[in-house]
């Protein structure tokens, strides 16, 4: 929601920033609306003016995370590197995220675990993100040659999912190293198949 000058409402921004921080660090179901309202320093009426319900706030949180990731990947793709180097750069950006302070796994995998019903709006937001990510990786891999890109995409996404799921459970360094080595192996297999 914007004000008369076309700017995003400060209250909405605070609500979304607060919800993002708490949802990511503590989980979605464990956080109530009252806590978000209190920490964002707004009223319940203000919350509901911007987000009709908690599910709408959660979907917006995921859409913001999606936009951020798309921005990162689009920046990498726009560099015009060879396809294999583009995929390596995407993998390195994922590894950097895993190594970052406060990393708690993939926001989308976490949300899917809390909202397993495929018909739920939160689950649908997760699927939109994952479809975009898979499509983008497929496009990059397709530039490498004649081998079908879809199997390699599934392999890459599974490597990524595994790294994201385990990256917050122990020392992220060996996990990131294993992930990046796995991407190298995938690239060699895909190149050999073309």
UniProtKB/TrEMBL annotation:
Q: DNA-binding region spans which residues?
A: 32-51
Q: HTH tetR-type domain location, by residue? A: 9-69
Q: Name one Pfam family in it.
A: TetR_N
**Which terms are listed as keywords in the entry?**
DNA-binding
- Provide the protein name: AcrR family transcriptional regulator
Q: Whose protein is this, by species?
A: Kibdelosporangium banguiense
């Amino acid at each position: 929601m914007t004000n008369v000058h076309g700017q995003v409402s400060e209250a909405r921004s605070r609500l979304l920033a607060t919800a993002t921080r708490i949802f990511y660090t503590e989980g979605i179901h464990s956080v109530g609306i009252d806590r978000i309202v209190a920490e964002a320093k707004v009223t319940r009426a203000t919350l509901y003016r911007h987000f009709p319900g908690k599910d709408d706030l959660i979907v917006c949180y995921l859409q913001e995370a999606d936009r951020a990731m798309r921005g990162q990947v689009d920046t990498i793709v726009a560099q015009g590197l060879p396809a294999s180097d583009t995929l390596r750069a995407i993998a390195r950006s994922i590894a950097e995220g895993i190594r970052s302070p406060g990393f708690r796994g993939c926001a989308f995998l976490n949300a899917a675990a809390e909202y397993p019903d495929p018909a739920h709006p939160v689950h649908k937001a997760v699927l939109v993100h994952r479809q975009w990510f898979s499509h983008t990786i497929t496009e990059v891999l397709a530039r490498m040659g004649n081998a079908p890109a879809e199997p390699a995409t599934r392999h890459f996404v599974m490597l990524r999912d595994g790294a994201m799921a385990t990256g917050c459970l122990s020392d992220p360094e060996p996990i990131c190293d294993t992930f990046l080595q796995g991407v190298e192996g995938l690239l060699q297999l895909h190149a050999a198949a073309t």
